[in-house]
Each structure stands twice: as C-alpha cells, then as structure tokens.
Design brief:
Elements (H helix, E strand, L loop, with lengths): L7 H24 L1 H21 L17 E6 L7 H10 L5 E8 L4 H5 L4 H19 L4 E7 L3 H9 L6 E6 L6 H4 L2 H8 L4 E5 L2 H8 L1
Parallel strand pairs: 1-2, 1-4, 2-3, 4-5
Helix pairs in contact: 1-2
C-alpha cells in the first residue's frame, strides 16, 4: 500500500496536522459534546483529503543492472493480465530461451478498503489473476513468475525493480476510455520516472471474448 510517511518531512507535516486537529477537537469538546463531534468529523475529513492528495514522491530512475545474459521483462498488468494481446507481445520478445518474465499485478483496493485495512480481498483477486496469467505464459516456454504488487502501479514498478534487473517494462491497460491507469497518465509518468524502455500494450478483453465467440 502507498505509505504517506516516506520521508521525515512528510512525517513532520502529518504530525503537525494531527496535533492541530486534536486541538480543534478538544476546543470543540469544551464548548459542548456535539461541537466536539462535529469538529472530529471535520478534522478526520481534512486529514483524509490531505492524505489522498499527497503526490507520489519522486523516485530515482531505477535500473538494477544484471551481470548475466538473461533478458528480463517486467510486466505490470491488472485485469488485462491474462489478455491475448499481452501474451502475443511477450511471445514476440522471447527471441532466445534466455528470457525471464516477472508479472506484477497491483492490488485493486478501494479507498474505503484501504482505510479500514480490508485489502485481503483485493490482494486475493490479484493473486488469482497472476496465477492464471503465469500458467498461460508458461505454456509458451517462457520463464515466468508472478507476484502481487502495491496498489499504486508506479510504486509496484519501483518495488519490483529493486530486486528484478529488468531490461524493459511492459504496461498493459484497457483501451482508452475504460482504463483508470490511462486517465491517471500512468504511461507518461512511468517513462519519466524509470530509465528503461517502456511499451504500452492495450488489451481489449471484450473484443478478445467476442473474437473467441
């Protein structure tokens, strides 16, 4: 999950906001109980809004160097992780047997689930998608493994690159108009943040199902 306290500066700001909020609640409680309750609701709302509006911290342009001849591909995908277009793209890149693929599916937890720490369902669903995708890709002869990543796809990429020396990144999304990642300009942000070739793969699951039918 995204951590709002990644630096001392962020931690200090959060502490100041919390202290001021507590003082407001205490002051309201001194007036009467209902004013205190109203103050508490307002303070919690302000802190929640502040939390979700915090920009992702700038990350180093990560690239873990590998000392072998293995070509490593990092795949970031969610609901499209089992799409035929993504599989075809990977097969096209598997020029030699020395190709390793890591499939990372960020957990799709809603804001409500995040606040109540109820992310097990989201991680379980992501884990099922990864397992199914790895099984399908393994049929092509590729060396594939998968894992569930942070719900923030940029953070999921950063976490994976710390241990997986990728040579390139594939980001799979739904078509424009149906993709939250594209609405958030994920592809451009990833290219600015990571010093690796990044390919955007569009997977239209509805069209693929219709073609099969």
């Amino acid at each position: 999950m995204r951590n709002p306290l990644r630096s001392e500066a962020e931690a200090f700001r959060f502490l100041v906001v919390s202290i001021v909020g507590a003082l407001v609640i205490v002051a309201g409680a001194f007036i009467n109980t209902w004013v205190g309750v109203a103050a508490a609701v307002i303070v919690v709302g302000v802190i929640a809004r502040w939390y979700w509006r915090q920009p992702s911290p700038p990350a180093p342009r990560l690239r873990v160097e590998s000392d072998d001849a293995m070509h490593r591909i990092l795949v970031i995908a969610n609901e499209t992780v089992g799409g035929g277009a993504l599989r075809a793209e990977l097969e096209q890149r598997a020029h030699t047997p020395a190709t390793e693929v890591l499939v990372v599916a960020p957990a799709l937890a809603s804001h409500v689930q995040h606040w109540v720490s109820d992310v097990d369902g989201a991680r379980s669903a992501a884990d099922e998608r990864v397992r199914a995708s790895v099984e399908r890709l393994a049929e092509t002869g590729l060396v594939v493994r998968g894992e569930v990543g942070d719900q923030d796809p940029l953070q999921a990429i950063e976490d994976a690159l710390r241990t997986f020396g990728a040579n390139e990144i594939l980001i799979s999304t739904h078509p424009e108009g149906r993709s939250h990642w594209l609405e958030q300009d994920l592809i451009s942000k990833a290219r600015e943040r990571f010093a690796l070739p990044i390919t955007h793969v569009v997977v239209d699951l509805a069209a693929e199902r219709e073609e099969v039918r």
